[in-house]
Each structure stands twice: as C-alpha cells, then as structure tokens.
Design goal:
5 helices; alpha+beta; 5 strands; 55% helix; Butyryl-CoA Dehydrogenase, subunit A, domain 3; 16% strand
Length: 195
C-alpha cells in the first residue's frame, strides 16, 4: 500500500527549517550580557556553534579575581560536534521533504527535541561548573557565594547585573523544535484520518 505524501506546506517548512539550521552554524546561539558601575557600556559574550566571541577576555580577567576559570573555546568538546549536529538535523529536514517521508519527519522531530533538552542541560551544567568550582585562593572570596550566570533571564552577581538569553541561532533552534513538533502532530493526525 502506497503511503500518503506529506502536506505541501510541511515539505516547504522542512526545507526552510533545514536552511535555518545551517544558518545557525554561522551565527551566535546565546548571549550573556554583564553590566556594572565600572562598565556602564556593558560587556557581552556570545556563544556560537564552534566558538565564543565578544568581550570574554575582559570577562576572564574579572572572573580571575573571584576564582572562576577562564573561558577558552578549545576546552569545550561541544564546539567540536555542535556544527556537525546542526548540519545533520538540517540534512534530515531536507531528506524528509525530498523523500516525502513521515517516518523521517517523526525521527528528526524526536531526535531534535531530545537534542534540545540535552543542549539546555549541558549549557546549564557548564554555567554551574563555572559559577561553583572556584579557586579557593582567589583574591576576592565571599563565603557561601557562587557566581553561576542565569541560564535564561536576569541575575544579580555582586555588583554585576547579568542577562542571558537566546541570540539569532538560539531563536532558530527553539523555533525549529516548536515547528517540527507541530508538523509531526499535524501529519500524524492527517495520516490517521486517511487510514
């Protein structure tokens, strides 16, 4: 029995999502902004699929005083695999559209949502490690104080105000997860009606 094809809009959106995920490889995924009286113009750090950019060297210098480790892109295994993971999910989106396959749509949706949960947990774990595993011989020690930046939103850390939120790439990834989930549900319901 021949399977029913994907809806035309599903195929178009899958191609758009594939292109979006490729773009995500080349744009910032997450932003962390710091503001303090001594830095009224603020400091920004941007996390990409394969690097860290922005004023992270200045942030490293400030973090040294409170015992936080320096941020260096080559220390993160995630930067070695994330571009390939995004390219893999983009390829699956294209494959689902061009092969007209609900099975591939369901697979990419499931895998991408699991990847998203893992990505968020890994990022939280990274922030936790940097904020809690402090050098006990640091110049400034505040007993009981940790410096974990927020995963999302705002947090006051000593005299610094810290904001953390998705950048272009993160917005694309969140949007892709939501759209894939909606497409998979819609296609599943349409397939059931045609049985």
């Amino acid at each position: 029995m021949k399977t029913n094809p994907l809806h035309q809009w599903t195929k178009i959106l899958l191609i758009v999502l594939g292109i979006g995920l490729i773009i995500t490889i080349f744009v910032p995924i997450w932003s962390i902004y710091l503001n303090a009286p001594q830095y009224p113009e603020g400091l920004a750090m941007f996390i990409h699929a394969n690097k860290v950019s922005g004023e992270y060297e200045i942030i490293n210098g400030l973090n040294h005083y409170i015992g936080m480790k320096e941020i260096h892109a080559d220390e993160f295994w995630e930067f070695k695999i994330l571009p390939f993971a995004l390219a893999f999910f983009a390829a699956l989106c294209f494959l689902a559209a061009f092969l007209n396959s609900r099975k591939i749509l369901y697979a990419v949706t499931t895998l991408f949502l699991l990847f998203g949960v893992g990505f968020v947990f890994d990022f939280w774990r990274w922030l936790y490690d940097y904020g809690h595993n402090l050098n006990p011989h640091a110049a400034i020690i505040v007993p009981g104080m940790s410096y974990q930046p927020p995963l999302l939103g705002y947090k006051q850390l000593l005299n610094f105000e810290v904001w953390s939120y998705p950048n272009i790439g993160g917005g694309i990834m969140i949007g892709a997860g939501v759209i894939l989930f909606i497409l998979a549900i819609m296609e599943f319901k349409m397939a059931k009606k045609l049985v």
